[in-house]
Design a protein that fits this description.
Low-confidence stretches: 1-42, 786-810
CATH topology of one domain: Rossmann fold
CATH architecture of one domain: 3-Layer(aba) Sandwich
Largest sheet: 6 strands, mixed
Radius of gyration: 33 Å
Distance between the termini: 49 Å
CATH class of one domain: Alpha Beta
Structural class: alpha/beta
Number of helices: 40
Length: 1003
C-alpha cells in the first residue's frame, strides 16, 4: 500500500542553494576531491582520511540526487575500510550506518541491512548504548519495509528502552514513529495514534523538525485510513511544509504522493495526477525506487479510472520491476493488486483473478490487513462477474470483517455493496436493502467529514452508482409490495443522491461563515482570488494564439495549482468557522415534505433518475406519488443528445460554409419533430394522463436531460396544429408553465429564504452593451466630448505587440448591438426612480461588485458569458473591458467571485449564450453560473442552454418583461411561457432554437 511518511503544503520553497548552482558546486567539489586526496595522502593518517571521506559523503548526500547518493555510498564504504584498518570500531560502525541509511533512501533494502547489521554488531561490542539504539531504529525501518513486522517491532522496542535509559529523546521519537507505523499496518489504530501523538510531543519539545514532520504525516495517514479526509489533508500539508523547510526531497515526494492519494480517493483525478507527477519527479531525482514504484502504481490507477487502460498498463509494467528490486512484499502485492484492478476494468476477469490470487498471500505474509481487505474486495467483484456467487460472497464477507477491524469505512461500504448485489440477484431484496443502508451510511459519514466542497461533490459523484442501485432495489420492492410505500422511499433516495452540495452551499451562504475566522486566512483567500483572476486573464490572452501554445500549457498548470490552493483555503475557513460549525446542515426532504412543497392542485413535480439497467420517473402532486420505470440511461441519453444536436444545428461549426450550414439546418428542421416526439414518449409518456392543460410542471432532470428544454418538447401523443400555414405539434409550453430545479430539496431551501427576506426597494437593474474593444466608436465619441468640454483627453498607449481587440474564450469579443435595443425596451416599462440603467462603460465589474445592485428585485445582464468545463469556477460574465479613455480594465465576473457577492434579487436574467451550462457532475447536476447566483442570493435565475440569436433574444426579452412588469404582472414562469408561446406563433421565430434555450430555475 502507501508509505506512511507524511505530507503538507504544495507550494515549493526556495532551496538553500538554487538547484543548478547546487549541482554545479557538487560536481566541481567532487572533481577536485581526487586532487586534494593526492596532495594530502602523505600528510594525513588513515583515520583522518576516513573522517574526511565521511564529510565528503555527507556533502554529496545533501544534494539528494541519485548520482550523488551513489557517490556518497562509495565515500562511506571507503571510510569504513579505512576505519576498520585503523582499528576504530566506532568510526567503522558510523561509516556503515551512513552507507546503510543512503541504501535505504535508494530503496535497496538488502544492502541497507547488510551495512546496518554489521554496524549494530560493532555498536553492541563497544557497549555504545546511544548509538546502538539509533542503529536498532534505523534497521527496524528496513525490516518493516520488507514486511518482517515481528523483527521490526522487537528492534524498535529495544531501541525505545535504550533511548529512554540514556535520555536520547530523538531516538525515542524515531522508535515510537516506527512502532506507530507497524500498529497502523496491523490495523491497531489506537496504539498507532498513541505512538504518533507521543512522537509529536517529543519532537516539538526537542525542536526536532524532521521527527515532527514524520509524526504529523503519520497522523494524517491514520486519518486517511479512517476516511477523515479533511484532517488527513491538513496533516499532510503541514508535513510537506516541514519537509520543504528541511529540503528533504525524498520525504517531500512521499508527502506529495499522499496528498495526491487523498484527492484520488475522493474522485478528484485531475488534482491527484498533478500531485503524483510532482512526487514521481522528486522520487526519481533522489533515486528512491520504492517511492517511485508507489507513485507509478497510483498514477496507473488514476489513468485506469480515466479509461486510459494502455497508459495504466505501461505504468504498472514500469512499477513492478522496481518493486521487485526493492524487495518490499507489500509493494509487490500492491502492484499485483493494481494489475488485477486494471484487468477487471478491461473485462479480462480470469487474468485479473490470477493477479489478485498472487497478491493475496503476499498481503497476508506482510501482515498488511488493510491491503488484504482490498484484495479480497477485488476478488469478490471478479468472482461475482464470473458468476461464482458463493466464492464472491465469501470474499466480500471476509473483506467486510477485516475492514471493520482496521476501521476502513470505504472498504466496509464496498463490501456491503458487493453483498447487496448478490442478495438482489437472488431475490432477497430486504437483505440487499439492509446492506445498502449500511454502505450509504458509511459513504455519507465520510462525505460529512470533508470541508472542501468540491471534494465532497466529487466523492459522492464517484459513489452515485450505489445510490442508483439503492433506488433500483427499492423500486423492485415496490413492484412486489405496491402498497408498502417503497416508491416513496425510492423518491427520498433520489433526493438524497442529488444536489446535496448546492443545498449545503445555500445554507452556508446565509451564515456569513467568514465571521470569527483568522483575518490572515481570509486575506489569503482574497489574494488567491486576485492571483487566479490575473492568471485566467492571461490565459484568455494567449488562448487563440498557436504560437503561444506552450505558454498556455504552463498557465493551465498554474491555474490547476491556484485552484487547488483556493479550494483548500476555503475548506480551512469552513473548518475553522464558528458560524459554519453552528450551521444546521439541511437534509434532503422526505416524500411527504416534497408533497407539501406543491402549494396548489395545479402543480406537478416530475423527478428523473437515470440508471444503467433501468431509469425511473416519479410524479408528485399534493395528494399522490406515482413511479414509472423508464428505459436505461444509455437509451434515454442517446435520444436526448440527438434532440439537442437538432435544436442547436443553426449554431454552425468552425469553418462551416453557409451552404453547408443551410443544408444542415434544413435536415435538422425535417428531423426534429420525430426525434422530439420520440424523446417525449420515452420520458413523458408514462405520465401523460397527468399532463392536463394548465398544469405547472416542476422538472428535476438527470444526466443529458438537463440540457433539454422541456418547453420545446411536444406533449406525448400531441396532435398537430397549424401555425402560420405550418403544421406542427404544439410544444409543452403552450399549455404548461415550466420550472427547472436541481432537486425538490433545493426548492424548499429557496422558498424558505424568500419567506424571511425583505424585498429590495427598487424594481430593475439592467447591465447591457458593454465596451469590449478600445477601437469601439464609443471611446472615440467620449474622447471628442471630452475635448469639446476643454479637457485634455488621455489616450491609451498600446504596448508593443498588443492587439486592438482583447482576446476572449475562442477569439475576439464582438459587440452585441441588439443587447442595447433589448435594454432600452425593458427599461422603458419601469419608472426612472425604480431602475438602474448601466449601459456602455457603466456595464462594468465595478457596478456588479458594488452595493447598488442589492437594491433591485430584478437584475438583467445582456452581454457575453463563457463556460469553462475544466474549471467551472473560471466561467463568467463579460462586462466592459476598457474604460471611457480606452484604458484596459478587468471586466470579467467569474463564478468564484459570484460566490462572494451579495445579490438578494427575486430574479436574475442572464440574457447571454450558454449561461445555464457548466460542468456536469453526477448526482450534483450542472455546476455553473446559475449555482453561483443562487449562492449570492438570487431566488430565481433565467439562463440559456445554447448560443442564442442576438435579434431573437432581444424580441423574447421584450415580451418576457412586458408580462413580468405589465399592468397585470405575471410570475416569472408565466411571463416566460407567454413570451415563448408568442415567439413560437411567429413563423420567423417558430423554431425552438430561437426561443427554447431560456429556462427558469427556482421557485
Amino acid at each position: 500500500m502507501i508509505s506512511m511518511l507524511p505530507v503538507g503544503s504544495r507550494r515549493r520553497r526556495t532551496a538553500r542553494l538554487p538547484a543548478l548552482f547546487a549541482v554545479v558546486f557538487a560536481s566541481l567539489w567532487v572533481a577536485g576531491s581526487s586532487a586534494r586526496q593526492q596532495r594530502s595522502a602523505d600528510q594525513e593518517s588513515p583515520r583522518a582520511e576516513a573522517e574526511r571521506l565521511i564529510q565528503e559523503g555527507e556533502q554529496l548526500r545533501l544534494q539528494q540526487q541519485k548520482e550523488f547518493l551513489l557517490q556518497a555510498i562509495e565515500k562511506f564504504n571507503a571510510s569504513a575500510v579505512l576505519m576498520q584498518a585503523a582499528g576504530d570500531d566506532a568510526g567503522h560502525a558510523l561509516a556503515l550506518e551512513k552507507a546503510g541509511s543512503v541504501h535505504r533512501t535508494l530503496g535497496d533494502s538488502a544492502r541497507a541491512l547488510q551495512s546496518l547489521n554489521t554496524a549494530l554488531s560493532l555498536r553492541r561490542a563497544g557497549n555504545d548504548l546511544a548509538r546502538t539504539a539509533e542503529t536498532l531504529s534505523e534497521s527496524a525501518g528496513v525490516y518493516q519495509t520488507l514486511g518482517e513486522m515481528q523483527t521490526a517491532m522487537a528492534r524498535y522496542d529495544e531501541a525505545l528502552r535504550i533511548a529512554r535509559t540514556v535520555g536520547d529523546r530523538r531516538v525515542e521519537a524515531a522508535a515510537l514513529t516506527g512502532m506507530g507505523r507497524i500498529h497502523d499496518a496491523l490495523g491497531d489504530s489506537e496504539q498507532a495514534i498513541a505512538a504518533y501523538t507521543a512522537t509529536l510531543a517529543l519532537a516539538r519539545a526537542t525542536g526536532d523538525r524532521r521527527a515532527e514532520a514524520a509524526a504529523t504525516g503519520n497522523l494524517g495517514r491514520l486519518h486517511q485510513t479512517a476516511a477523515e479526509s479533511q484532517q488527513a489533508l491538513e496533516h499532510y500539508r503541514e508535513a510537506l511544509r516541514l519537509f520543504e523547510e528541511l529540503n528533504d526531497r525524498a520525504r517531500m515526494a512521499t508527502a506529495l504522493h499522499l496528498i495526491g492519494a487523498v484527492y484520488h480517493s475522493l474522485g478528484d483525478l485531475r488534482q491527484a495526477i498533478l500531485f503524483y507527477d510532482e512526487a514521481v519527479t522528486l522520487a526519481r531525482r533522489v533515486g528512491n525506487r520504492q517511492a517511485e514504484a508507489q507513485t507509478l502504481n497510483t498514477m496507473a490507477m488514476v489513468r485506469r479510472a480515466m479509461g486510459e487502460h494502455t497508459v495504466a498498463l505501461a505504468l504498472l509494467d514500469a512499477a513492478l520491476p522496481l518493486a521487485r528490486a526493492v524487495g518490499d512484499p507489500r509493494l509487490i502485492a500492491y502492484t499485483l493488486h493494481n494489475y488485477g484492478d486494471l484487468y477487471s476494468a478491461m473485462g479480462q476477469w480470469q487474468k485479473a483473478l490470477e493477479y489478485e490470487l498472487e497478491a493475496l498471500p503476499l498481503r497476508r505474509a506482510a501482515h498488511d490487513r488493510d491491503g488484504e481487505a482490498h484484495v479480497l474486495l477485488q476478488i469478490g467483484f471478479i468472482r461475482y462477474n464470473l458468476g461464482d456467487t458463493a466464492n464472491a460472497q465469501a470474499a466480500f464477507t471476509d473483506a467486510h470483517a477485516i475492514a471493520r477491524d482496521v476501521r476502513d469505512q470505504p472498504a466496509q461500504a464496498l463490501a456491503s455493496i458487493g453483498l447487496s448485489r448478490i442478495e438482489r440477484d437472488a431475490g432477497r431484496l430486504t437483505a440487499a436493502r439492509d446492506y445498502l443502508d449500511d454502505a450509504l451510511g458509511r459513504i455519507e459519514s465520510v462525505r460529512n467529514g470533508i470541508a472542501i466542497q468540491e471534494l465532497r461533490t466529487s466523492y459522492v459523484a464517484g459513489a452515485h452508482d450505489y445510490y442508483e442501485l439503492y433506488i433500483d432495489v427499492l423500486m423492485q420492492l415496490h413492484e412486489s409490495q405496491p402498497s408498502a410505500g417503497f416508491d416513496s422511499l425510492a423518491l427520498q433516495a433520489s433526493e438524497r443522491a442529488r444536489a446535496r452540495s448546492l443545498i449545503e452551499l445555500l445554507a452556508e451562504a446565509r451564515g456569513d461563515i467568514r465571521q470569527g475566522v483568522d483575518p490572515m486566512l481570509v486575506e489569503r483567500e482574497q489574494a488567491l482570488h486576485r492571483r487566479l483572476n490575473a492568471k485566467a486573464d492571461r490565459q484568455l490572452q494567449v488562448a487563440s494564439d498557436p504560437a503561444q501554445r506552450h505558454v498556455a500549457e504552463t498557465i493551465a498548470r498554474e491555474l490547476e495549482r491556484l485552484t487547488t490552493e483556493l479550494r483548500e483555503v476555503e475548506g480551512e475557513i469552513r473548518a475553522r468557522s464558528p458560524r459554519y460549525a453552528a450551521l444546521t446542515q439541511p437534509r434532503p426532504l422526505t416524500s411527504r415534505e416534497i408533497q407539501q412543497l406543491l402549494l396548489d392542485d395545479g402543480s406537478l413535480l416530475l423527478e428523473y433518475s437515470l440508471g444503467k439497467e433501468r431509469s425511473y420517473l416519479w410524479t408528485v402532486t399534493k395528494s399522490s406519488i406515482a413511479a414509472y420505470e423508464l428505459p436505461p440511461r444509455a437509451e434515454i441519453e442517446a435520444a436526448a443528445r440527438r434532440v439537442y444536436r437538432l435544436l442547436t444545428a443553426r449554431q454552425g461549426a468552425p469553418g462551416e460554409s453557409v451552404t453547408a450550414l443551410r443544408a444542415k439546418v434544413r435536415a435538422a428542421e425535417a428531423s426534429y419533430p420525430a426525434a422530439a416526439a420520440a424523446l417525449s414518449r420515452m420520458i413523458l409518456g408514462p405520465a401523460a394522463p397527468q399532463l392536463t392543460t394548465g398544469t405547472r410542471l416542476l422538472i428535476v432532470s438527470d444526466g443529458a436531460l438537463q440540457y433539454i428544454p422541456f418547453a420545446a418538447l411536444p406533449a406525448p401523443g400531441a396532435e398537430e396544429t397549424a401555425v402560420e400555414d405550418v403544421t406542427v405539434a404544439p410544444p409543452l409550453i403552450v399549455e404548461h408553465e415550466i420550472v427547472n430545479l436541481p432537486s425538490a430539496s433545493v426548492l424548499a431551501v429557496l422558498r424558505q429564504e424568500l419567506l424571511g427576506r425583505v424585498p429590495p426597494a427598487r424594481t430593475l437593474a439592467v447591465l447591457a452593451d458593454p465596451v469590449f474593444d478600445r477601437d469601439d466608436a464609443r471611446i472615440r465619441r467620449n474622447a471628442a466630448e471630452t475635448a469639446a468640454s476643454g479637457q485634455a483627453p488621455r489616450t491609451a498607449a498600446r504596448r508593443a505587440g498588443e492587439g486592438a481587440t482583447p482576446i476572449g474564450p475562442g477569439g475576439p469579443i464582438a459587440r452585441l448591438p441588439f443587447s442595447r435595443r433589448e435594454a432600452e425596451s425593458i427599461l422603458a416599462s419601469v419608472p426612472s426612480d425604480q431602475r438602474l440603467k448601466a449601459l456602455d462603460f457603466q456595464a462594468s465589474r465595478t457596478t456588479v461588485t458594488g452595493d447598488s445592485l442589492r437594491e433591485y428585485r430584478i437584475v438583467h445582464f445582456a452581454t457575453h458569458a463563457f463556460v469553462d468545463d475544466e474549471h467551472p469556477e473560471l466561467s463568467g460574465i463579460v462586462l466592459s473591458l476598457v474604460d471611457e479613455r480606452g484604458e484596459p480594465q478587468d471586466g470579467f465576473i467569474r463564478l468564484h467571485e459570484l460566490y462572494n457577492l451579495t445579490l438578494p434579487a427575486d430574479l436574475v436574467v442572464l440574457s447571454a449564450c450558454e449561461t445555464a451550462l457548466g460542468r456536469e457532475i453526477r448526482g450534483e447536476g450542472i455546476v455553473g453560473l446559475t449555482r453561483g447566483l443562487m449562492y449570492a442570493g438570487a431566488a430565481r435565475v433565467v439562463a440559456s442552454l445554447w448560443k442564442v440569436d442576438d435579434v431573437a433574444t432581444a424580441d423574447l426579452m421584450k415580451r418576457f418583461y412586458a408580462g413580468l412588469l405589465g399592468e397585470r404582472p405575471l410570475s416569472p414562469a408565466a411571463a416566460l411561457r407567454a413570451a415563448q408561446v408568442a415567439m413560437w406563433q411567429q413563423k420567423r421565430w417558430s423554431a425552438p432554437y430561437y426561443w427554447g434555450a431560456f429556462v427558469l430555475q427556482g421557485p
